[in-house]
Each structure stands twice: as structure tokens, then as C-alpha cells.
Design goal:
heterodimer, A: two-stranded antiparallel ribbon, 10 helices, B: alpha/beta, Pyruvate-ferredoxin Oxidoreductase, domain 3, Rossmann fold, 7-stranded mixed sheet, 21 helices, disordered N terminus, binds thiamine diphosphate, binds iron/sulfur cluster, binds magnesium ion
Chain lengths: 290, 615
């Protein structure tokens, strides 16, 4: 076996919520037996974004907020890969907001994990777009990614986990990865992942999280019900978690990778680009010019 | 009156005397013939300007004429002018056809077609003395001995059923006025509209015949001018953008992401047609930030990937290009320069991004900047850019400009026999099996580390924009930083033998040098021809690698001449500044133009003549 890079031990503060997210991602990948060489983990910029350094497989460190654009490029170049983009709430909902919305719209089969801690951990605790009013003098009301995702017509997999509940988190991630590997589209998983150093919300969130399955008759295949239930839970001062929405198969729009690359074998990164193979067809293109 | 008003530069072009005498249409003898028609001059170099409102189909007429003359073996060059200082939606297009090789606009128009009075008045300013003006009756008010008004739009509306066909009616009239072969002129229509389906072809042919008849009835059967046939019969008519798109496909490019922006968009549109046939993917991204980052993602995954943009988009891509440099991701970025900054003049021509593409960066990283001069060169250098990016694992910027991107020109069919694919140190699973250890950023003598892409067993590793050690682990070790900087930046020197050499044109022994890049290739070569006729020998250094600056070849060139004019489209003289950094030679002079239009050969000639070719 060729020796390749070994993961380094996480550099996160002891107790950081991101440990739980890392463990869940690793567990789901190994449960599903995703081959190492097919795993691509793309990290954003932030404490959370360093996650690819702490895992085996192919890792890519993006620019701040651009991880989803990178991930779309990777997946459309080689749809056989299992692509996970993972970053912070600042990374995804502030500087990267445009790409987040468009990733939901594009619907490329990848898993996007946002480690949501209501703060900019790496730059020492400034308010992020999800910070509550009052956090460090924040006067803007917080953004909610689940409600936003629900409003994008092509969004087909929306979940929220809590790193304080590693088992539940791993289950959601496993479902998301399966969805990805079946090329069904974009899977969005927000992970409540407390920053113990700047915004220790463990205790608070443990009290506030409410799994949507606890609501009688909840149907994760019903988008408008999902929206209204989440809203009701939030208005009651709690945080909806769990498998929020999963489009029923007859309503699910095809993923972009499936649409533009119907056969897995032939894709930009894997097709034969040698001249020997292509020359006659190239010659035809050139001959067609007038 | 000069065709385009200055001031272009601090060096006064306006000092040019009158237009060269070659530019007159009426033969001297013809003037004396009084009422009888002068003999139609036989031209070996003709330019026709078609003007009207946007939507009048002026480009179609230009395009039909271009293809006609291409099939007659002439060299053709088309250009479009959206004269922004004129109010309203005026638009015009020019088509030049010449027996001698030409890649630039003609100084004066021989014939103007005007669909409205504004176009007629503008056109008159550009007409050679004795030039012909063909106007649409009822619209065009100007009059004169050589002004002919025909009911173009009325005929189109009443007899073809839609006034929009006035452009093809005009082409029909032109075919008689210019002595075009009717069958060949009709064949050009068939080639263009034949595949369109419906009755487009039939109606256009009808419009053509009606136009021809109008001219016959109202002007007479004898042409007002005729054009010699040329020898370049197997040429194609193409643009730099088209050449770039095709070069990308042939060079193995399979992923393209872009965001619409003039004048780069046609590259994306051409690839939308080509790439799906080759298992490739084209995506219109949500913005240029996404475009560059999608491109990087695809390149990282092992696809040959490119993006294309223009000034404002390039600014947004700058962070990404640096990331490709630090993380060693092979990408190609095309910059089709236009007038900037900000929105500037989106449809107009400039070469003012040079210093931006060379230097823009936070932190330092290696990049190559290549600049082709014509369509064929663009095809070749796009392939080269893909190879260089992968071999040296860095971003390569292909610098085009509006004139090169959009102005159609004839040239030989692209030569596939010159195409090579070099993927550099790209590892296969089998290569890796034989290796004891794989480090993504391994130190090597040539600064290039073997590269495995996702999906390759054994090649797992980290690709990162953080400073890293050989493994790709984040590092702030000082010695590592020094070594990594040397590894990356050292490639700028080591790669020199691989970089496209300059092309030289003209007299090897000449004492007057001309230096330029991009589309100035055309006017410079034509200026050389004009100067030669005056007995002035020149030698032209066409720079094709702009970064790293090709110091050796430039130095040799400067040693071989007494004076070297750097010809470029920007205010500051950016190429001259760049050369001067390395070669502060007193021989360097500057010829600059920054009014949004490309050079006329005569402007370059005028400047060389004015300063007498002395330092
Ligand atoms: C373009 C750019 N702007 C600013 C920064 C500085 N920066 C680094 S991380 C970060 C915020 C991180 O917050 P978040 O994404 O929530 O990640 P966390 O650290 O909380 O996991 C910022 C602003 C940067 N790296 N790049
Ligand atoms: S600062 Fe906060 S987010 Fe960053 S590692 Fe420490 S606990 Fe985690
Ligand atoms: Mg955060």
C-alpha cells in the first residue's frame, strides 16, 4: 500500500460541537462503506471548515464561502464521487449565501453540512447571520436556513441535526449520503454545533430542540406542512430538528448531475480526451467551419 | 477628416496630414466624363459599412458580404461599431475584403449602406472621396451625385411581407452595385438560412432578387465598382472567441463555467453546442465567484477546465485565481478585455487589463499570461494554455481583447496536426501502486509534484489554499514557507522553455521595431506593409507570452533595432511599463490608443512617420 497523508488530530477547542459532526460523518461513511478514494470532503473557511484535515480520503480546502461552487464543479466533473461540503454558518449564510441558494436551485447530488453555532468561531466570536438579537449587541433578527431551503422548489432533502445527539445526527447524515449516492439531488443538513468558547449553547439547545417527528401526524413528504410545523415550533421558542423534508419520489425534480450526465461512466474528468480517440470527430467540427 | 477623432494619446495622431492618396474611389479619368457614368473602378481592397438602428440587421449584411468575399478568395475582416457618443440606438458594421492579407479595419469606407438618415450622415464622414452611399428611400435625406436611394424597406414590407427583410434587399442591391456574381451571392444566403427551416430561406432569396432588380431598374446594369478575386480560397471566417472555444474542445477541455458578459459570452455559447457531444459540461454560474470556483472544482477532480470573462468578472475572480495558484490547481481563465473600469464601454475595445492579469493578487503565486494575435493563434494558444496549466499545475490566463474576440476574420482552417495533449505529472492508479509514498505537494527539482485526482485509489490527500507542507497539512513553519514559495514561484523561471515564443514579422535587418500583443497584430502588420511601400523597413515582435516577461527575446529584439514602438490600447502604456521594468531601454517608445476603437494601420504609420523612426 502506498503511504498517503494521515489525518491530523482536530485542532478544535475541547468540547466544540464540531467533534460530534466529524464523528457522525465518519460513521455514516463507514456504515455505507463508501470507498476512501471516492470520498471528497470540501471544507469551508472557519473552525468548522478545517474538518477535511481530520479525515481520511480526498480533502479540499476552499475559499471562504465558495465551497459549494467547488463541490458542484467536482461532482459535475466526476459524478461517481461522493462529495460532501462542510463549513460554518458564516461561511454558508453570509459570504456564501448566494451559492447556498443556488446550490438548492441547481440540485447537484452532494451533501452540504453546515455547522451552525450562531457565531464566527475562527475570527473570535462576531455575530453570524444566525446570531440571535442581543448576541454581542446584534440587532438584526436571525436567518433561518431550513425555512429558506423549504422555499426553493427544487430542494428535496432538508434536515437539521444536533451534535449533542450524535446518533440522530449520524442517521440524518447516512440518509443524506444515500440520497447523494443515488444521485437524487442536493441534500442539506444543518448541524447545530455549539461553539463552547464564544457561544456555549449546549444546555440551551438541549432544552430547546424538538424533533419534528414528535408532532402528531408530521409528514416529511409534505412541504407546506413542514414549513408551517417548523414555524409553529419556532414560535413556541423551540428549534425544529430531524428529517424536516424529503420530497416524495413523484415530486422530486431530477438532479442536475443526472440531467447533464445521464451515464456515470462518461464525465468531464473520466472521459477519454486523447487525440487518438477523438481526432476524427474533431476534424468534423473543423471541417464544418466556413 | 480623420475617420475617428482623437485624442488617442499624448502623441498627436492628429498631426497626420491628409489621408493617403490611395484612398480615393473615382478614377481620375472618370471625373471628366461628365454625365456619362465613370468606368467602375476595380478594387483589390474594399470596405463596406452598413449602418442603421440596432435591430436593422446591419450585421447580417456584413456577414453575408464577408462570406461572399471569403468564397471569392479574399481576406476578410469585419468589425462592429456602436458609436457611444451618438445618441439613439445607432449601430453599424463594417466588412473589409482584400486581396492582400488583412486583419484590420480599412481607413475609409468605399461604400456605405444607410437604413436611416443618422447612419447616412455618419457614413458620409467615413466615406472615401467619391465613395458610394446606398440609402433607404424615405429614411435617408442626404443627397449627392453618388448617393442612391432605393425603396429597401418599402419593398421588403410590400413584397416579402416584412420590413425586416430590408437588409437582404440591400444585399441584393449591393450584389449588382458591386458586381457580385449573382449565383455565388445567392449561395451565401442558402448556406446561412438553409438550415433554419420554415420559409426563411425562400423569403431571403426573394428579398435578394428584389434588391437586385431595384438596383437594375434605378441605377442601371453596370456595377459602380467591382472587386478583384483573391487566391485564399480555402480560408474560413472566424472570430477569436470561436477559435478559443474550438481550441478548448480539441485541447481536451471538458468543463466550462461562466457568467454572461460581453465580449466573452460567445465562448460559453459555442461550448454549450460543442461540449455535450464530448461528455463535457458547460454551466452558466450564478456569478463569476461561482464560475471560477466551479472551474477549480472540476479541474481538481481531473477535468480540463476553463472559464471566460471580461474586466468586471475578472475582478471578481481574482481571489479564486490566487487560490488556484496556492493550491496548485490547473485552470485556464480567458479574459476578453473591454473598456473599463466598472461597466466602462462594454461593447468597445481596449487592452487595459494587462497589469491586472499579471499582478492582481493578495500574496504571490505563479501564473502564465498568454496573448494570441489572431484567430488561428488563439486556437493554438488555447490548446497550449491547457497543457501548460496541467503540466505546471497553476492558473494560465489567456488574454484576448474585444476586437480579437468578436471581429470575424479569414484565415487557414485550424490545423489539428499541431495539437498535442500533455497532462504532466497526472498519476493513474497504476502509477501510484508503484510508489512507496504519495505526497500531493512533494518537493521536486522542477517544482512540480505528482498529482492524483479524486477517484484514484492511493492518491488520497489534501488540496488546500492554506500554506501547507508536502503532505498538504496546514503549516506555518518558516523553513517550509520558504521552500514552498521557492517551489511554486521557481516554476516561473523553469517553465520558460515551454512558453509560447514571440512571432516576428518584417525585415530582420530593420532598425525600426514594433512591439504589440493581441489584436494589434492586424493593424501592425498592415502598417508594416504601408511603411515598406514608403521604403521604411520595420520588424514586429508579436508578444505571445506576457508573463513571465520574455526578457531574453525582448532584449535581443531591442538590441537589433534603434527604436521600438510599443503599440497598445490603454492610457498608461502598460506593456511598455512591463517591459521597462526589466529592460529600461531608451529605445522604447509608446503608441497608444484608448478611444474604444481599434487601431487603423494608418495611425501607426503616421506615428512612425511623425517621429521619423528615431529614438
Ligand atoms: C474573503 C474572506 N473574508 C474574511 C475572512 C475571515 N474569516 C475567516 S473564518 C470567518 C468566519 C467563520 O465563521 P463560520 O463560517 O461560522 O465558521 P466557524 O468558525 O464558526 O466554524 C471569517 C470572517 C476570510 N477568510 N476570507
Ligand atoms: S472557537 Fe468555537 S467553533 Fe471554534 S473550535 Fe473553539 S469551540 Fe469550536
Ligand atoms: Mg459559525
Amino acid at each position: 500500500m502506498t503511504e498517503h497523508v494521515k489525518p491530523v488530530p482536530p485542532t478544535w477547542c475541547p468540547g466544540c460541537g464540531d467533534f460530534g459532526v466529524l464523528a457522525s460523518i465518519k460513521k455514516s461513511l463507514s456504515d455505507l462503506k463508501v470507498p476512501l478514494e471516492e470520498t471528497v470532503l470540501i471544507g469551508g473557511i472557519g473552525c468548522s471548515g478545517g474538518i477535511h484535515n481530520f479525515m481520511d480520503g480526498y480533502g479540499f480546502h476552499s475559499l471562504h464561502g465558495r465551497l459549494l461552487a467547488n463541490a458542484v464543479g467536482v461532482k459535475l466533473a466526476n459524478p461517481k464521487l461522493t462529495v460532501i461540503a462542510a463549513g460554518g454558518d458564516g461561511d454558508g449564510y453570509a459570504i456564501g449565501m448566494g451559492h447556498f441558494i443556488h446550490a438548492l436551485k441547481k440540485n447537484v447530488s452532494l451533501v452540504y453540512v453546515v455547522m451552525m453555532n450562531e457565531t464566527y468561531g475562527l475570527t473570535k466570536g462576531q455575530a453570524s447571520p444566525t446570531a440571535p438579537v442581543g448576541y454581542r449587541g446584534n440587532v438584526e433578527s436571525p436567518f433561518d436556513a431550513v425555512l429558506t431551503a423549504l422555499s426553493i422548489p427544487s430542494a428535496s432533502f432538508i434536515a437539521r441535526g444536533f451534535s449533542g445527539d450524535p446518533k440522530g445526527a449520524a442517521q440524518l447524515l447516512t440518509e443524506a449520503l444515500k440520497f447523494n449516492r443515488e444521485r437524487k439531488g442536493f441534500a442539506f443538513v444543518e448541524m447545530l454545533s455549539p461553539c463552547v468558547t464564544y457561544n456555549d449553547t449546549y444546555k440551551l439547545w438541549r432544552e430547546k430542540v424538538q424533533n419534528v417527528t414528535s408532532v402528531a401526524g408530521y409528514d416529511a413528504a409534505d412541504r407546506s406542512r413542514a414549513f408551517s410545523t417548523c414555524l409553529e415550533i419556532m414560535e413556541a421558542g423551540r428549534i425544529p430538528i430531524g428529517m424536516i423534508y424529503r420530497a416524495p419520489e413523484d415530486r422530486r425534480l431530477p438532479s442536475l448531475d443526472q440531467t447533464v450526465l445521464p451515464t456515470l461512466e462518461k464525465a468531464p474528468a473520466t472521459t477519454d480526451i486523447s487525440l487518438a480517440t477523438n481526432l476524427p470527430r474533431y476534424q468534423k467540427l473543423v471541417d464544418a467551419l466556413t | 477628416m480623420p475617420r475617428r477623432e482623437g485624442p488617442f494619446t499624448d502623441l498627436a495622431f492628429l498631426a497626420m496630414a491628409t489621408t493617403p492618396e490611395a484612398h480615393t474611389l473615382v478614377p481620375a479619368s472618370g471625373e471628366q466624363l461628365g454625365s456619362s457614368r465613370p468606368a467602375a473602378p476595380v478594387l483589390h481592397d474594399v470596405s463596406v459599412m452598413i449602418g442603421g438602428q440596432g435591430g436593422d440587421g446591419t450585421l447580417t449584411v456584413s456577414d453575408l458580404l464577408a462570406h461572399y468575399f471569403r468564397t471569392r478568395g479574399l481576406y476578410v475582416y469585419t468589425s462592429r461599431n456602436v458609436l457611444s457618443r451618438i445618441r439613439g440606438g445607432h449601430a453599424d458594421a463594417s466588412m473589409r475584403a482584400s486581396v492582400e492579407p488583412t486583419w484590420s479595419q480599412k481607413w475609409k469606407e468605399d461604400l456605405v449602406v444607410a437604413f436611416d438618415d443618422e447612419a447616412a450622415r455618419i457614413g458620409q464622414n467615413h466615406l472615401v472621396s467619391g465613395g458610394i452611399l446606398l440609402g433607404d428611400q424615405g429614411q435617408v435625406k442626404v443627397s449627392g451625385e453618388r448617393v442612391h436611394v432605393l425603396p429597401l424597406s418599402v419593398t421588403a414590407a410590400s413584397k416579402v411581407g416584412n420590413g425586416l427583410f430590408k437588409n437582404t434587399v440591400a444585399y441584393g442591391a449591393l450584389s449588382l452595385i458591386m458586381g457580385l456574381d449573382a449565383a455565388s451571392a445567392r449561395a451565401v444566403i442558402s448556406a446561412r438560412f438553409g438550415r433554419r427551416g420554415g420559409d426563411a430561406l425562400e423569403r431571403n432569396l426573394k428579398a435578394f432578387d428584389l434588391g437586385r432588380q431595384l438596383a437594375l431598374d434605378q441605377i442601371g446594369k453596370d456595377p459602380l465598382l467591382t472587386v478583384e478575386d483573391g487566391a485564399a480560397k480555402d480560408h474560413i471566417l472566424t472570430t477569436g472567441n470561436q477559435a478559443c472555444a474550438l481550441g478548448f474542445v480539441v485541447g481536451g477541455g471538458r468543463f466550462f463555467a461562466g457568467y454572461p458578459i460581453t465580449p466573452a459570452t460567445p465562448i460559453m455559447e459555442a461550448l454549450q453546442r460543442y461540449l455535450p457531444q464530448f461528455d463535457g459540461v458547460v454551466r452558466q454560474a450564478e456569478d463569476e465567484l461561482a464560475a471560477i470556483n466551479m472551474t477549480m472544482g472540476a479541474a481538481y477532480a481531473g477535468a480540463r477546465a476553463m472559464t471566460a470573462t471580461s474586466g468586471p468578472g475578472l475582478s471578481l475572480m481574482t481571489e479564486g485565481i490566487g487560490h488556484a495558484g496556492e493550491a496548485e490547481i490547473p485552470i485556464v481563465v480567458v479574459d476578453c478585455q473591454r473598456v473599463g473600469p466598472s461597466t466602462g464601454e462594454p461593447t468597445r475595445h481596449e487592452q487595459s487589463d494587462l497589469l491586472h492579469v499579471v499582478f492582481s493578487s493578495h500574496g504571490e503565486f505563479p501564473r502564465f499570461v498568454l496573448a494570441p494575435g489572431d484567430a488561428q493563434d488563439t486556437f493554438d494558444l488555447t490548446v497550449t494554455a491547457l497543457n501548460l496549466a496541467e503540466k505546471w499545475q497553476l492558473p494560465v490566463i489567456l488574454l484576448l481583447d474585444q476586437a480579437l474576440s468578436e471581429n470575424a476574420q479569414t484565415g487557414p482552417r485550424f490545423d489539428l496536426s499541431r495539437v498535442r495533449i500533455d497532462r504532466g505529472k497526472l498519476l493513474t492508479a497504476r502509477d501510484i501502486e508503484g510508489m512507496a509514498v504519495y505526497k500531493r505537494y512533494e518537493f521536486t527539482p522542477d517544482g512540480i509534484s505528482p498529482r492524483a485526482v479524486p477517484g484514484t485509489p492511493g492518491g488520497e490527500g489534501q488540496t488546500t489554499g492554506n500554506e501547507h507542507d508536502e503532505w498538504g497539512h496546514v503549516s506555518v513553519n518558516r523553513e517550509n514557507r520558504r521552500k514552498m514559495m521557492a517551489k511554486r514561484m521557481g516554476r516561473l523561471e523553469l517553465a520558460r522553455p515551454d512558453l509560447p515564443p514571440p512571432r516576428f514579422f518584417g525585415d530582420e535587418k530593420a532598425r525600426i521595431g514594433l512591439i504589440g500583443f493581441g489584436s494589434t497584430y492586424g493593424p501592425i502588420r498592415e502598417a508594416q506593409r504601408l511603411l515598406k511601400k514608403e521604403g521604411v523597413a520595420t520588424r514586429f515582435y508579436q508578444a505571445r507570452t506576457l508573463w513571465p516577461v520574455p526578457v531574453d527575446s525582448l532584449q535581443a529584439f531591442l538590441e537589433s533595432v534603434d527604436v521600438a514602438y510599443v503599440v497598445e490600447h490603454n492610457y498608461m502604456g502598460q506593456l511598455k511599463m512591463l517591459i521597462q521594468q526589466y529592460l529600461p531601454s531608451p529605445k522604447l517608445r509608446s503608441i497608444r490608443k484608448y478611444d474604444g476603437d481599434s487601431f487603423f494601420a494608418e495611425e501607426i504609420v503616421g506615428e512612425v512617420r511623425r517621429s521619423g523612426g528615431t529614438p
